[in-house]
Each structure stands twice: as structure tokens, then as C-alpha cells.
Fold each of these.
Amino acid sequence: MSVDLSSNRLTGEIPREISELVGLVSLNLSRNRLTSQITPEIGRLQSLDSLDLSRNQIYGKIPTSVFQIHGLGVLDLSNNNLFGKIPMGSLLQTLEPSAYAGNPQLRGLPLQKMCPEDEKSPKQTVFVNKEDEDGLITQGFYISMVIGFVVGFWCICGTLIFNRSWRYAYFKFLNVVNDWVYVRVELIK
């Protein structure tokens, strides 16, 4: 189920009852005049794939319950009055900074503006070279391909080489298949 009430000049608060729509997949309340905080109960919408609250006058901090929505693929909170630190969570830090644009008091990843407590405690950053990572994956692919070929080849051919009865049965089977295909081709002509 999708709810799109964008550009309707809605005013007031986002109703808390919206969190009871547990089957809701998409919620678009953008381009209105909503003036409330984001309700923490929004985390109960586990089916939610898209949430657009952009271009309103929503204020306050982003509730941590937003990152508990595991299927959330699209989130746009831009052009509001949100402030504070973006909650830590896999989804919220991987979004484009444009999802938070127009909230001058908002801080933390993925924005360039960091929180004061983040700046005081220097963290060691581990840089992973994308080319090295791709090279390792490619090398692993080729190694596993060679191992698979060698094992497969020797399982089939080794059995035929060392087991005389299987070798005779295999070539007898090939002759039967060859004769059957030959007869079918001749009948079609």
C-alpha cells in the first residue's frame, strides 16, 4: 500500500496513527507545511521501502527508530528544520547527502558537517583500495574456476580411465545416443 499526499498544502502534525499502517510500502508527504517532529513510532513500519518527508517544516532530531526499518531503500528528509546528529545505522550513513540537504543544523555522516564530539575523538580510518578489492575477487574467481575444472575433469575422466566396466558402459551409452540422434535426423528429412 502506498500513500502519496505530496503537494497538498497539509499543515499541522504528522499523525501518530500513520505508524499503525504496518503494510505501508511507500509514504510521500513531501511539499506540504507539516510542522511536527518525526514520530518515533515510524520504526514500526517494517514494510516501508520509501519515505519522503522533504520540503516541510519538520523539526527536531531524526529518531533512531528510522534506521530500524530494514527494507527502507529511499529516504528523503531534505529541506526541513532537522537538527542534531544523524543516528548511527547502516542505512542512514549510506544515503546520499542530498537526502539531508537544507537542514543546516543537522550533523554527522554522510554530511561533511561533523558533530563536535566526533571531531574531538579522532578515529582511525581504514582505506580500502577498490582496485585491490576487485583484484582479489577476480583472482579468487579464477583460482576457484581452475580448481573446479581439475576436480570435475578428474572425477569424470579419472573414473573412465581407471574403471574398465564404467568405460565400456559409457562408450556403449554414447553409441546408443549417437544412433538415436542419427535415426531422428534421418526421419525428419
Note: The mean pLDDT is 85.
Amino acid sequence: MGLRASLSRPTVGRGETLEERGRAFFQTRVREVQGTPVVELEGEVDLSTSASFKETVYQVIDSGKRDIVIDLDGLDFMDSTGLGVLVAVLKKISLEGGSIRLVCSKRSILKVFRITGLDKVFDIYDNLQRCLGG
């Protein structure tokens, strides 16, 4: 493991990082901006963290919110399981008459959307202000 990885990952005891224990660093924060719930993601969305991501967004939907923003700008990495969660969330919220918008300006994350064609499925904005129409 390189110096960069050891500096960017929180430790969990005996100098091990979360990644070394089989879990990537990931956290969510939900806040309301102009009456719209914004789910902010930080770290990595992969097989080990995607369930937490899905649970957080489903809780927002189940609370009655129908228009949701997911801010991906805090992500360092997202694999196909993260994309799968986004597609599942889109299906769930669409069935309930809602919508989802994404905020993402990171080229590495946007590339995943372009390669898979999901950039044509999701409304993706380069910053939160534009996403909220401000």
C-alpha cells in the first residue's frame, strides 16, 4: 500500500485501514437544500458499501420525499454495484411518481456513466446550484 492510500483512509485499530479490513471508506449525509433532500456521498461505493448507500436513499424515499438529489462529488470511486443501486433507486422513485437528479463533476465518475450509457438515463449536473435551478 502506498503512502497516498495510507493517508487518505481512516484507520480502525492496529494501523489497519478500513479497506484492509475488507471495507472501503464510505459515508453518507442527508440534508435539505431549498426543500429538496440531498444525499451526499463520500469515499467509495463498491460491493462492500452499496447496501448502506441503497438503505440511506430508500429511507429518504420511504419518508415521503419524491424528488431527490444525490451528490456524487465526494466519491473517489464507484463500481457497477453503485450504478446498480442508482438504477434501483431510479426505478423505485419513478414508480412512486418522483425523480432523481445527480450532481457530479468528477471526470472519473462521469466516465463510468458515459461508458455504460447511463448519462442518457440520469439527469446529471456539474454542481448543486445548477441542479436545484439556482
Note: Residues 1-21 have pLDDT under 50 and may be disordered.
Amino acid sequence: MPASTVHLVIIHHGLWGTPANTEHLTTTLAKHHGGTVSPVTKLTPPESTSTIAVHAETHPNAQRQDVRMVVLNSEVNSGDHTYDGVDWCGERLVKDVYREVGRIESEEEAEVGKVSLVGYSLGGLVVRYAAGVMYADGFFAGGEKGKGGKELEFRSKPVAASLSTIATPHLGVTLTGSTF
């Protein structure tokens, strides 16, 4: 029987990106740690959520009773949606995370104990913004109740485990000379 506590890892792609850009990271992370991939994540054959789930059953971490990993490769900001700005992308990502937490609680009958966010390029800025929104909503353990008057309907009060960014322009980008 799988552990009833989940470490949810959310991965977000960069500018003009799609989940295909971060799919290898998603599957590698799940396989290496004996985790599963969220069923809402689309994978390219030969990988599938079922092949990764079979791998997870035989992984040494399958014997752990305390926590198991679920990886969500978010697609809510695919393609041109990244032009909407970091704030809009972050808000959409937060809704996606909340949907996934609700799915884990209802379908898997588990609670989310830890949340990690991973962003590639612009996705790093998006996950950083989303972390702030989730904190302001009172999503994380030890946090205050939502400052915006929002009452979250989750049993889970996860710990913010990690925020990792890859090739993210946290300080912005320099302006290049124009040829026009």
C-alpha cells in the first residue's frame, strides 16, 4: 500500500515552452525517486504514467511508509500563454497546483505533506511568483490564514520543501543594441 503522504513536485517550462521541454526532467525525477507522474501530465511514448507507476512499485522507495513522490509537469501556460506575463502565468499555475492537491486528496486518498517547485528559464520566475501567492493564500503549513479572505478547502497543509530554478533570469536581461 502506498504512503498516504505525498511530496508533490511541480515543474514549469520556460518562455514559448510546452511540457515537452521539461518532460525528461519529469520522468527522470519520478523514476530516480520511485515516484509517479500525475495522470494529468501528458507523456511522449514509450513513457506513460502507467510505465512509471510500474517502475515505482519495484523501486526501493516503494517500501517507505512515510512519503511518496508525485510529479506534475504543468501545461497551463503552454506556448503563447507565457506572453501573458509572470503574474498571470503564476496565478494559472497556482490554480493548477490546487487542482492537483484536490485530485490527490480525493482520488488517491492522501494528503500533500511537502511541495517542491521547479522552473526552467521563465518558468523559474513563474514558480517563484506562484510560491508567493500560495504563501499569501495560507496554503503552506505554519503560514497564516489567507490574507485575501480566501479559504482553501484542503486537508493538506504542506511544508514548502524546495524552490529550484534552472537558467532563470532573476535579475532580468540586458538590453541589446538595435540594428534598426
Note: The chain has a mean pLDDT of 91.
Amino acid sequence: MSDIKSFVENSSVPLPANWSVMWRDYIRMNYLSINVVCETNVIDVNQQTLVYTTNTLISNIGAQAGLWLGLTVLVFAELIELLYHLLRFTFQKIRSKMQRNK
């Protein structure tokens, strides 16, 4: 009980005026005592392992980037091919009109 008294006196808790006389009653009325008892000697060890490692993360980011960049390059190449065919068709049409007019 004296350990609790010294702890309370050294803390920043304001003490009542009659602390020196009534400290036992004050501690019993205002503080709670908890007894921690070891119920068993069995120790549970919980280990967690990473499922999503750093290597997996970097690999997935690279795969997604490759997929989307690959699709972007593919779409870009198809657009260039479409423009090529449109220009070729237009020039052939103009050339055939010029040959008919001669």
C-alpha cells in the first residue's frame, strides 16, 4: 500500500487537504487494484507470413504496365495502319479520276 501512496504523491494528481491522515481511505475509494494471475504456462505463438511480397508486388506492377503499354502500342500501330490504308485509297481514287480525265 505504501508503494501506491508514493506513486500517487509523485504523480500530478491533486491531493486532498487531509491526505496525510486519510490517505488509506482516499486510495481505497479512488483507485482500483488489479491482480494479474498467470492462468496457464502455455504460450501461444502467432506467426504471420507475407502472402504478397515485395517481389510479387513489383512483378504485378510490371505485368500490368506491360499489358497496358503493349495495348497502347498496338492501338497506335493499328491507327497508323488505318491512316496508311485511307491515304493509299484516297490517292488511288484521285489517280484514277486523273487518268479518266485525260
Note: The chain has a mean pLDDT of 87.
